[in-house]
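Researcher: Please translate sequence to structure tokens.
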Amino acid sequence: MTSQSPFKAHSGSEPRNRPDASGTVIQEYFRERVAAVDSWLDTLLPAADAPPAVIHEAMRYSVFAGGKRLRPMLLIATGEIFGAAESELMPAACALEMIHTYSLIHDDLPAMDDDVLRRGRPTCHVAYGEAMAILAGDALLTQAFRTLAAHGPEDAAIRLRVMSEVAEAAGTVGALIGGQVLDLQHENLAVNAEVLESIHRAKTGALIRCAVRAGAILGRASESELENLTEYGEKSGLAFQIADDLLDETGSSAELGKTAGKDAAAHKATYTALFGIGGARARAGTLCREAIAALDRIPRETRILAAISRFIIERKS
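Model: Translation complete:
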């Protein structure tokens, strides 16, 4: 991976956030960066045959099952705005993917959403048993913080700040675990828009917001730039969850790589349940526009992030 964006430098004669109309540039960007992230993950994770081998096999089974690598892409794309080096960005990007994968493993467990399909293959507990899946998730969370502590910027203050951001996003207060708790507590209950948004700002949005903030911190963004990027991350995180709710209603299991219709069957609190498909699509579009408007307040080349925001609401899986 290089630190250069594949977009041409902004000439000043066109809107800074105008994306490639065909989408080929963002596709190529993802292809190159995902390959780099996977290479780093292969290095940072314990080898599959390192004893006890079964836990490392289970960890790798879930990490390398595919996926969009959206959180790493957001962190990398944000850091590249400021010229951050690959050696600083990649460990943090991989740590976020480890945490995201751990959350998926645990989310699929029988005690949680009880799903048998993830990223187009049997879930970790189906392949390795429930106990090993729990431990694989635990191990990925631990490995994420080991990665953050051992790699990244030489500046100890920056490294500590990134670790703090990630820890907060993975925790219980307005964050990943807290959002999962709220999601479980509100199954089969009628919720209003405020409660629904609080669930998804935490469960899904926290890691996405963290990815953007961590990339900005690693890039030594100013406080003003960080503020606008935080707004971009928050809006994009909510848009991502709404898109997920729409896909759960409209997509097939083959397209999604997971069981379609699962949220509706479990009577989950979703945007489509509260606002309908049309209302949910309108809300996602509004959030995307607001996210890009936040980017427009940053006097830097941000078209990659704008394109990612559009990808979030237009994706098919």
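Researcher: Any highlights?
Model: The chain has 15 helices and two strands.
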